[in-house]
Amino acid sequence: MAFGNSNRIRPRSVRRSLSLAACAAFFTPVLLTQPPGPSSFDTPESREQGRSLFQTHCAYCHGARGEGGRGVDLTTGVYRHGGSDAELYATIRNGIPGTEMPTVRATNDEVWKMVSFVKSIGAGGVVESAPGDRVAGKAVYDGKGKCAACHSIGAEGGILGPNLAGVGRRRNLAYLRESLVTPEADVPVLYRAIQVMPKTGPPVRGIRLNEDDLSIQLRDSQNNLRSFFKEELKEIRRDKPSLMPAYGDVLNAQELENLVAYLSSLRETL
Amino acid sequence: MRRRVFCIFALAAAGVVVAQRLPVTYERLLHADQEPGNWLMYSGGYNSWRYSRLDQINTGNVKKLKAQWLFQGRSPEKFETTPLVVDGVMYLTRPENDVFALDAATGRVLWAYNYRNPVSTYNCCGKVNRGLAILGNRLYMNTLDMHLIALDAKSGRELWKTAIYDYTLDGGYAATGAPLAVKDKIIVGMAGGEHPGSGFLDAYDAVTGKRVWRFHTVPQPGEANFGTWAGDSWKTGGVATWNNGSYDPETNTVFWGTSNPWPDYNADARKGDNLYSCSVLALDLDTGKLKWFFQFTPQDTHDWDATQIPVLLSGEVRGQKRNLMAWPARNGFYYLLDRDTGKFILAKSFVRQTWAKGFDDNGKPQVIAGNEPTVEGIDTVFPGVDGGANWMSHSYSPLTRLLYVFARDERRVFTKNSVRHLNDGEVSELNTASRPGATLQPAPANTGIFGAGGNLPAGPNPNRANPRPARFAPEESWGKVVAIDPLSGETKWEHKVISPPWGGVMSTAGNLVFGGTTEGMIFALDARTGERLWHFSANERVYASPISFLANGKQYVSLAVGDVLMTFGLE
After folding, report:
1. Which domains does chain A have, with CATH numbers?
2. B242 with B177: CB under 8 angstroms?
3. What is the distance in angstroms between the Cα of A151 and the nearest Cα belonging to chain B?
4. pLDDT tens per residue, range A21-62
5. Cis status, amide bond into B263, omega within 30 of 0
6. What ipTM did this prediction achieve?
7. Which CATH number does B2-570 carry?
8. Are B452 and B266 within 8 A, CB to CB?
9. pLDDT given at position A16
10. B15 — contact with chain A (CB < 8 Å)?
């Protein structure tokens, strides 16, 4: 399974900048920026400006109305890293190291305006309720779906797909359904499938771990770490960006809903 | 250059650069010398020779050595790591406790693991880490907040995390060294000898992470050798185990060095030999029971830790074949011990020394008066505060049968006071809750380092009438690679460098000795003569020891310089 990055709706440049921002968050020390004093941006005007900024910086993952998708549903009013003004500011300003939440490249004033908007949409939200049976969904996960062959929940399971610990908090129901039925719709950058065709020897399929102009690194379908110089390759195929099978062909509608319910119940992160 | 690389690469099966064989079994570790293309543990093998059997790079072609790739550490901390290499995959730590898997041929990152320590940790000398151990499919790392962590070597996924000790107690503990994986155990040392704690060496189950045994480096009441500390001073005696050790499979013995007693420069309250400080311990791997110990510096007052890496070899001494341990010590003497019994064989100085006129038959030094630290500061004591050798790795070459030591030969000042100095910026009161009887006071700012004195920084000092700079003219201190005949202790050659080093050395079957200086000059010496055959000006401090390995059949040499891991290969 693959749950993540969409290339359907975002222009390439935006995706790239987000990816770079994520990389920056990953490799640079956290900026422990102190938020400036009490917010003076909690006004209707600021909220409207915040809404606009939210579309630019946040909607890709959190949805146009903050309803979630790739990112957490912000309409619940429940924030794992704190819901105070200062905590929301710090989360937006600095990102959350070790997660997909990057630093946001905006001025301090703009960040405060986004805080104002996020607070407004989180005032009366409710947590989505999955219609399926999560216990039956776990049986699908462990049995017919063979999900653990590629995915982990915490320290147990496969490593070819993203770790699903906390996926129910990060992804909404629609996103989970889509990922099961159309896995290639949105594949996280660290889990994109490729197939390398050496000039000699058999092709190798796996997920791309790293790449530059001269070489490419991947984890093959047997979980081995592999690296190839491009000069030794006939071709690199990227036309099937997910290793995950389309589960609409494997599971019936009820099984899918049950699996979605189970995945949605996975709220604890590592 | 590129064409040559690809030609060699083309020889590899199906264009595969990385074809990793996991698990790394204990059998593989035991015979690490049979896998010269890999670097499977901190010192290369259980005998801690830090010697590579690779000879593609040799005295005849080393002039063609070029930088091949860099790993950018992006950390302001000292980069002390020794990477591991397993079949084309390199694993290394980056300060504070991040782990990376790299393609060893290109340096490209395969996976990364980020560990977050608390903001305040209690490391004496930088938020450093010296590397990993591998056993099975797991990598092991010690952390600054005193945890042992197991990672899946294929993915970097954290498998478990075991608390070693409460890192906030007794002025603070940290774990900075690389673990040592032996059989089914992970041997873990701790740092904290600069604080009033109590040291230990631990063994953990490699699969579950549960502690199997703990050896207290200060004998506890009822244990053998208790009573070598005056009064209650044993309770705050320090004696850390902050570097790596060695293992003898024939006797199932782990050898590990211990640090200074605390407070470092003032023994007024801790009369006695202060066992097992500044010693090497021989412990049964399965039980952690002490087989023997040898103390290099009884009642140390100069911070002359014995946390060097034990080098295990065999040879003929006085007509008899013996299993030996070679030990260039921080106190300036090279020691040769019988490693089956711990019996002293010989000691000879390899740097300037002023404190011992000789040794008795048991290796106890005959101390020369007038070398003790003073309140005013004494600058006529050799070796200096950081010793003749320190934690940096030595190397032994079976080809030349020489032991290579990157030694510090320097003039420093030793002072003594009655207070301790906490970590930089730390203002908290001494935590004596777990050590009843501790009566020492926190130090005022700028009055010393490491507990009751030390090499004082320049500037006013309340304990000294005539403050003087702690460091001296460069020409009074230097570094040198010393080639010692381990059986006789005789120095065969010396290669002098301008500054006392913080990096170790590695010898190779190409008859080369690699290392890096404080100025960042990476060098290769002729192992037979000490002549410098090659250099590269990396222009940043070296705080690490080199390794060598194969990727795609080609030999590389890696060394951390500044915050960069540099990797060299032939054109």
Report:
1. 31-121 (1.10.760.10), 193-237 (2.30.30.100)
2. yes
3. 12
4. 333 333 333 334 444 444 567 788 888 899 999 999 999 888
5. yes
6. 0.81
7. 2.140.10.10
8. yes
9. 34
10. yes
